[in-house]
Design goal:
By secondary structure, the chain is of the alpha+beta class. It has seven helices and seven strands, in the order E-H-E-E-E-E-E-E-H-H-H-H-H-H. Strands 1-7-6-5-4-3-2 form a seven-stranded antiparallel beta sheet, covered by helices on one side. Strand 6 and strand 7 form a beta hairpin. Helix 2 crosses helix 4.
């Protein structure tokens, strides 16, 4: 079953400018989305290559009627089945009304799905808007062909019946509809499998990290460090010495020394409380009452 598309747009250039630009068929890829190339082999023959919705199509079109500043009509003779016309109308004020009519036969699963989604309809509308921007930005046509083809033949607006010779043709597709559909199905299936696997992994991760699941941990025994287990001071390390644990070459810390020998080991502590908070050198600088007297007596001055 064929599909018909009709679109109209107002272009802010004179009719001759709009028409002249349209006759530059080989420049269609500049503003027609999906059109890869157009080659004009004669005044009335065009070879097209297009790719729409991931499906590549080729066809040869015959210009059935061409009237300067008024109309270009065509129909496919081989390849993708399509036919149509572009009509130009001078509406005054340097403006042109351009009307596009296109009828085509969708081929294969992918094109039929695209047809249901109005892909070609939206593409045709976008192409006309790009043509409008293209010609209005330039303000003049990049070229012109003012010749006529079958002028006065009054072929009207060609439809797919006029492209009967191309019906049943595969469209010389680089990727056939069936192959593209199979690839699409495979891609969807692969994506679904990946989503399923990802969902499963996420579920397992959530289960493993669920707050409802009891978490047990083995208690870590507290290890007491003997008073004589640390054998190197910061000054030793600063001089390039190595810190060792468990060495027996150091005596235990002084009973008054709460650091187990890490400070005041080399004569800095004299066994007094004051000696533990002030260095011997500092205490020597300041005269004091002398050492703490022994029990039951007084200190001699």
């Amino acid at each position: 079953m064929s599909t018909k598309v009709e679109k109209r747009i107002l272009v802010n250039v004179p009719v001759s400018t709009a028409y002249n630009q349209w006759t530059q068929f080989e420049e269609f890829p500049h503003f027609m989305g999906g059109v890869k190339s157009v080659k004009q082999t004669s005044d009335d023959r065009l070879e097209w290559v297009a790719e729409i919705a991931g499906v590549r199509r080729q066809w040869t079109a015959k210009v059935l009627e061409q009237i300067p500043d008024r109309k270009v009509a065509w129909a496919a003779t081989e390849g993708a089945t399509n036919a149509g016309a572009v009509e130009f109308e001078d509406v005054g004020g340097g403006q042109t009304s351009l009307r596009l009519t296109l009828e085509y036969d969708p081929e294969g699963i992918v094109e039929k799905v695209g047809d249901k989604l109005n892909v070609v309809d939206r593409q045709a509308e976008a192409d006309l808007h790009r043509f409008k921007e293209f010609i209005e930005d330039e303000g003049y046509a990049s070229g012109a062909w003012r010749g006529s083809v079958n002028e006065g033949a009054s072929v009207g607006t060609p439809g797919v019946e006029d492209a009967g010779a191309s019906r049943g043709d595969s469209g010389k597709a680089g990727i056939s509809g069936k192959v593209a559909a199979a690839a699409g199905v495979a891609a969807v299936a692969g994506a679904a499998a990946a989503m399923k696997a990802g969902s499963k992994d996420s579920s397992e991760t959530r289960d493993a990290a669920s707050p409802g699941a009891p978490v047990t941990a083995e208690p870590v025994p507290i290890q007491h460090v003997p008073a004589n287990s640390v054998t190197s001071t910061t000054s030793d390390l600063g001089a390039g010495g190595d810190a060792t644990v468990g060495g027996a070459d150091r005596a235990p810390g002084h009973p008054f020394d709460q650091t187990n020998g890490l400070v005041d080991f080399e004569g800095e502590s004299d066994g007094t409380a004051e000696g533990e908070i002030r260095s011997a050198a500092k205490r020597r600088e300041e005269p004091g009452p002398g050492p703490i007297p022994p029990l039951g007596g007084t200190a001699e001055r």
